[in-house]
Amino acid sequence: MNIELLRDHCVSKNGVTEECPFGDDTLVFKVKGKMFCLISLSDPNFCNLKCAPEYAIELREKYAEVQPGYHMSKKHWNTVNFKGALTDKEILHWIDDSYNLVIAGLPVKLKQELLEK
């Protein structure tokens, strides 16, 4: 995985914005103001992704490259290391899961706005 592929995938999704709310080093992708993916610009070998708690534990147990979220809620976030055996397809799938998880938690009105676009 490289940062360009990750960025292109994230911004291709409906309603996504990219920001640097934590300083110039961390690129954050949001949908309707809620974060679903974070990546360091100085060390783009890792990203943080939102994850359902049970699935987060399952991924950590199955993949050495998946760890509890760095500087995030360990219950709801995973840090994914791109240096390892993970495929781009797996990581892109987890980005999709993260995006969909955030959308699922949005109020009905915001979900409807996404569907109308």
From TrEMBL:
Gene3D superfamilies: 3.90.1150.30. This is Predicted DNA-binding protein, MmcQ/YjbR family. One of its GO terms (molecular function) is DNA binding. The keyword Iron does not apply. The lineage of its organism: Bacteria, Pseudomonadati, Bacteroidota, Sphingobacteriia, Sphingobacteriales. The keyword DNA-binding applies. Pfam families: YjbR. Transmembrane segments: none annotated. Keywords: DNA-binding. InterPro entries: YjbR (IPR007351), YjbR-like_sf (IPR038056), YjbR/MT2646/Rv2570-like (IPR058532).
